[in-house]
Amino acid sequence: MANESGTLDIFGCYKGLFYAVEVKREGEKATALQLINIRQIQEHGGIALIVTNVEQVKKFFATIA
């Protein structure tokens, strides 16, 4: 199932915090619409980030553990 344009790749709730993750290959950039969605999530108290490897994901979850 394809995502709607601009939708981030992964969504969830961890320890009561909403998060969204956009996964990119090294050197790729988020689209303008993805950046708008990231900003909106952050403005409403959620956590949104762009990652390029699993270590970044592990580090993210370690900071809210």
Short synopsis of the structure:
This protein is an alpha+beta fold and 65 residues long. Helices cover 34% and strands 26% of the residues.
Notes on the protein architecture:
This protein has 65 residues and is an alpha+beta fold. It is globular. Helix content is 34%, strand content 26%. The chain has one domain. Helix 1 links the parallel strand 2 and strand 3 (47-51). The chain has helices spanning 32-43, 54-63, and strands at 10-14, 17-23, 47-51.
Which features would summarize this protein structure in a list?
single chain, 34% helix, 65 residues, alpha+beta, globular, three-stranded mixed β-sheet, 2 helices
